[in-house]
Amino acid sequence: MSYLIDASNLGGALAGARGARDARAVLAFLAPWARGRGHVLVVFDGPERPEIARRYGPLEVRWSGARVADDVVVEIVTREPQGWTVVTGDRELARRCRDAGAKVEPATALAERIARPHPRAARGAKPATAPDKPPAHAEEREHWRKVFEGEEE
C-alpha cells in the first residue's frame, strides 16, 4: 500500500501550527514507520528546501512550489487513484481524494497509530524487520541523526 501524506496536516496533528511548518520533525516522526511500508510520499507546502533530501529510503519528499499542496495531492491521486491512502485532516482535500478513488485516513489517526507502541514491544518481543534489509549500522544511525537534527547539509 502507498501512502500520500499531507505534511502540514500531519505536522499540525503532531504539534499544532508550529508543527505544520516543521518539515524535519514530520520526517523524523515518519521515517521509522515508513520502513517496510512500501512507498510513502509526503507533500509539503512551498518551495523545496535544500536542507531536506528528496528521499529517505521509502520516504519520498515533494514540495508544492508556488501551488497549494492540496492541489498537488489531488493531481497525484487523479493520475493514479488505485493504491493510495491519503493522510489528511482537511475535509475538503479528503473529499476530493475520495471522489478521485483514493482511500483516506485522518492525520490524527495515523499520528496516534505511529506513536502507540506495538503490542509485541510491550511484551519484550523483537520487532519485525524487512527480510531483505539489514539493521542500520551505527554510522547510518549517526548520519540520519545529524540529518534530522540539522547538523548535516
Q: What is the topological layout?
A:
Blueprint: E1 2-6, H1 7-20, H2 23-34, E2 40-44, E3 55-56, E4 59-63, H3 69-79, E5 84-88, H4 91-100, E6 103-106, H5 107-115, H6 119-122, H7 138-149
Parallel strand pairs: 1-2, 1-5, 2-4, 5-6
Antiparallel strand pairs: 3-4
Helix pairs in contact: 1-5, 3-4
Seen as an oligomer or otherwise, the chain set is single chain
Structural class: alpha/beta
Approximately what portion of the residues adopt beta-strand conformation?
A: 15-25%
* Main sheet overview: 6 strands, mixed
**Cα-based radius of gyration, to the nearest Å:** 16 Å
CATH architecture: 3-Layer(aba) Sandwich
From the 3D structure, determine the CATH topology: Rossmann fold
What is the mean pLDDT? 84
Alpha-carbon distance between the two ends: 31 Å
**SS summary, helix count:** 7
Reading off the top of the CATH hierarchy, the class is best stated as: Alpha Beta
Count structural domains. 1
Counted beta strands: 6
Q: Uncertain runs with pLDDT below 50, 5 residues or more?
A: 125-132
What proportion of the residues is helical, as a percent range?
40-55%
Report strand order across the widest sheet: 3-4-2-1-5-6
Name the overall outline: globular
Give the helices and strands as they follow along the chain.
EHHEEEHEHEHHH
Explain what this protein looks like in three dimensions.
By secondary structure, the chain is α/β, with parallel strands linked by helices. It has one domain: Rossmann fold (3-Layer(aba) Sandwich). Helices cover 47% and strands 17% of the residues. The protein is built from seven helices and six strands, in the order βααβββαβαβααα. A six-stranded mixed β-sheet has the order 3-4-2-1-5-6, sandwiched between helices. Helix 4 links the parallel strand 5 and strand 6. The longest helix has 14 residues.
